[in-house]
Amino acid sequence: MPRSKDVPSDRSIPSGSDFLQLDAADAPAGGLSDWLAQRLRLAIADGRLAVGDRLPATRTLAGELRVSRGVVTEAYQRLIEDGHAAGRGRAGTVVVAAPVTAPAPAPVRTRTADAPPGAVFTAEPGADVFDAVRAAPARIDLSPGTPDLASFPRTAWLRAERRVLGTLAATGLGYGDPRGTPELRRAVAKWLARNRGIAAGPDEVLIVNGTAQTLGLLAQVLRGRGVSAVAVEDPGSLGARQHLRYWGMRTPPVPVDADGIRVGELRDSGAPAVVVTPAHQFPTGVVLGGGRRRELMRWATDTGGLIVEDDYDAEHRYDRPPVPALRAMLPEHVCYAGSVSKLLAPALRTGWVLAPPELHGALVDAKRFTDLGSAALPQLVLADLMESGELERRLRQLRRRHRARRDAMIRAVDTHLPGAAVQGAAAGLHLTVTFDAGFADTDLAAAALAHGVKAHPVSWHRQRCGRPGLVLGYAASTVSGIEEGVAVIGKVLA
Amino acid sequence: MPRSKDVPSDRSIPSGSDFLQLDAADAPAGGLSDWLAQRLRLAIADGRLAVGDRLPATRTLAGELRVSRGVVTEAYQRLIEDGHAAGRGRAGTVVVAAPVTAPAPAPVRTRTADAPPGAVFTAEPGADVFDAVRAAPARIDLSPGTPDLASFPRTAWLRAERRVLGTLAATGLGYGDPRGTPELRRAVAKWLARNRGIAAGPDEVLIVNGTAQTLGLLAQVLRGRGVSAVAVEDPGSLGARQHLRYWGMRTPPVPVDADGIRVGELRDSGAPAVVVTPAHQFPTGVVLGGGRRRELMRWATDTGGLIVEDDYDAEHRYDRPPVPALRAMLPEHVCYAGSVSKLLAPALRTGWVLAPPELHGALVDAKRFTDLGSAALPQLVLADLMESGELERRLRQLRRRHRARRDAMIRAVDTHLPGAAVQGAAAGLHLTVTFDAGFADTDLAAAALAHGVKAHPVSWHRQRCGRPGLVLGYAASTVSGIEEGVAVIGKVLA
Q1: Residue B171 DSSP class
Q2: Which sequence spans correspond to the domains of chain B?
Q3: Residue in A with minimal Cα distance to B40
Q4: Distance, C-alpha A206 to centroid of its chain
Q5: CA triplet B451, B453, B457: central angle to 5 degrees?
Q6: Which fold has domain B106-151+398-493?
Q7: Backbone phi, then psi, for B245, in 5-degree steps?
Q8: Which residue in A95, A113, A365, B55 has a CA-CA distance of 20 to 30 Å to A434?
Q9: What is the Cα–Cα distance from A43 to A339, expressed in whole angstroms?
């Protein structure tokens, strides 16, 4: 009976430890403690063991190395004697000496992160521009795109996670359906039916890691079908444009006016697909008007065009009735993208996409080969929060909070930026102010940052020229922070 | 002072509800309750409201619609009277009638999932082959690649999550560093130093959604540099090959013998990169021998070749000393990929990659434009488990459990598959049995499945012909399941 050599018999003796890959077979005869102490010193010197690290329990390490416990105790004692380690009673033996020669970490440079604060805004925005903005120190952050994070429902999240872990079958922890867990796909389908007027089955829902991933997956699939351009609104999200371009798409700009995207110019662009934000255009905040909605849908049916509906903050509205999703009218031509980034927290990296039926399978493949599907536990927790009504409660609470902050920002703009035109205040998490004067809004943003206040220049979100301005997020700041931040901008401007 | 029309004044009156996008302005004069009842019936009929769904509290909905509470109460009452809904006391009003005309869900078909059980193995493996295998019903699952999921440390996970949520700053819930949280990058750097002999700083670590994502990101970056082929071990993982091919790479096969990959043939292939599993080759389980390690490193330095080290289950070893990672020797040429899929659970979708310095920035960009970085909470929980020593405890516990199962499988193979050669039993989560006879192992796998036992045919993981066999995972099954599963395979074979 042929057997390969590595089949163990009863006599097979495992030896060696994962810890520093120690193997007593490497030790010279009779010098086990010396050898072990030397290996430990080396690991401290080259940084593999850091100050504060605990050494393994003597019994554990001795067992793994198949040496007597005395060998390990003696080696640890030598380290204690020469000042590398210290005994800490029940906490065991801990490294206390700083490494003698730490390995030089490989220099890792981003492209704008090391620039002086102002250059974050005045330089051409690079791939890492939002990382650089985030990293720039500021007292008050009015960057758009983030809800009130201080009120994230931590207790409810933890309670839901306990329920999930209390009932989940072990197989639920294995590799899963790349489309997402059935639980979350069901909950999202219900949520969209209830809150966004979309009738879709759970099998039409694909769970993704946020809308950024949706754009990437979609671009891959479209590129595979020979598409090389996806039109975007202008002004429109710089981030979305960067994502599409990374995935090989041109992004022809289509102007936005008070009724939303100008469909005639979309038609003229010849682009076979377009990303739109119909419920609350980013960054202007206009709602796609009824006539334009019909025109856009006609464009899609006439030309076979694809509408990518980025429904990023539709739930946040204050002074106007809700607007149903385009997807509800025209499922064959609308790829709907939503997420919890503006509802719970961007750090959850959880969203969903409803593709037209003929793109669905290719998107699922793209998701599979991107990451084999999103992590299961956060999906199940979110499904629980949706099904229990917790997420609707959260939305109502957020809306009250955001409205108060929105009102504070409008008052502050009235007071401190009297020459500004305000747009998009009826809904969302930000408003846009523009100015008649002819100056570079990147300079304004840089000057504000130098005075401790962060906001986006409108020009970042434009491909064509337009009035200078700022996009001011209010949802994640306190009322006093908003007042002070806008006052600083007013001073800088004057 | 120019102002756009949507700036609210104090008199602005929000109205309308997200719930079904109801707006009382749509109601005919004097018929509010009728209108509301009718809208609810419609939503039940078209599936937007399902049986078991709770209607909003009357007070909430009345407030949102700016109608008197009596209007909503009356509408609900009508639904209760005509059998659509039922009052449930404190639980409110709940939908009880099945929808009259449910919308036909769009048919979503995968390519192998609908095939009869056996065809899962006998058909050419498609993109969704692992989904299909997972979906195929079976009494005993000996698929490789999954650790013991029943012992997932649920309590420790929840405790760590409570600690994380108790201390996390609100900004930690916003958009974050695409490389991963500093906490997890630090913890992984320590873990790798301690357990895999790799000295690397946290800035060299990139957190990803598992090794599948690593392969995709890397293939994107390499393709951008004109690389169109990544050599793979043969036999070698079908999954890894599928991922590389999806991302546009050819995968020239390089034979594996008892010492691991044959470097001479890698050199002959001319491929500028290779994916290897040096610590425990998949699926054969051989360890890359010392001479071969040196040869492989020489290949990399001579040719500027890239070694992708998939360290998928290096921590799981039973009868042999640990093998240090190639990355520890040659950081400029080795891209190291690890994950918690075999240590905790694949469903966590969390892993890490240490790229050669010159690829690092491009990989970070690829990660950013894939999903803006992995979700933060699971990263922070994992960091806590690593720093607290919980993960090392888990590993020790897993090793004991897996060893007992491995031993049971070897005994069962001895008894029921006396003609089989066993490979790779000294470490890992699976072993491989091969047979001298000339039959198709896909037929064997299909027949076993028909008798309720799942295992992978070795030929799936081969590009060139070889002896038929099965890859048998033991880590996720009980001892009695293993015994019965192997007995069934023995019967099928006889």
Answers
A1: G
A2: 10-95, 106-151+398-493, 154-392
A3: A194
A4: 17
A5: 110
A6: Aspartate Aminotransferase, domain 1 (3.90.1150)
A7: -70, -40
A8: A113
A9: 45
B84 token code pair: 């659509």
Of all helices (H) and strands (E), which one includes residue A39?
Answer: helix A32-45
A-proximal residues of B, 34-63, CB under 8 Å = 43, 46-50, 53-54, 56, 60
Q: Are B97 and B43 in contact (CB under 8 A)?
A: no
Q: In which element (H, E) is residue B465 found?
A: none
Token pair for B408: 């049971």
Give Rg (Cα) of chain B: 29
CB of B57 closer than 8 Å to CB of B17:
no
CATH of domain A10-95: 1.10.10.10
Take residue A25 and report the two structure tokens written for it.
């077979």
**Contact between A371 and B109 using a beta-carbon 8 Å cutoff:** no
Nearest CA in chain B to A153: B165
> ∠ at Cα A329 (A237, A461), nearest 5°?
5
Mean pLDDT of B217-244: 95
CATH fit for domain A154-392, picks 3.30.1360.120, 3.90.79.10, 3.40.640.10, 3.40.50.80: 3.40.640.10
Q: What is the pLDDT of residues A84-121, one digit of tens each?
A: 888 888 778 988 875 433 232 233 334 555 556 568 88
- Residue with more model confidence, A77 or B148: B148
**Rg, C-alpha atoms of chain A:** 29
DSSP state, residue A54:
B
**All residues at 6 or more sequence positions from A411 whose CB lies less than 8 Å from its CB, including other chains:** A483
Give the contacts of B104 (CB within 8 A, at least 6 positions apart): none
Among chain B residues, CA nearest to A103: B199
In percent, how much of chain A has pLDDT > 90?
Answer: 70
> What are the tokens at A192?
């969209």
pLDDT at residue A100 in the model = 37
Chain B residues near residue A345 by CB distance under 8 angstroms: 173-174
What does the pLDDT look like over A341-393, one tens digit per residue?
999 999 999 999 999 999 999 999 999 999 999 999 999 999 999 999 999 99
Strand positions, DSSP E, B325-426: 334-339, 351-354, 421-423
Asked if B259 is an interface residue toward chain A (Cβ–Cβ < 8 A), one would say: no
Is the pLDDT reported for residue A313 higher than 70? yes
Who's near A491: CB < 8 A, 6+ residues apart? A416, A451
Cis preceding-peptide flag for A283 (omega within 30 of 0): yes
Contact present, B410 and B431 (Cβ < 8 Å): yes
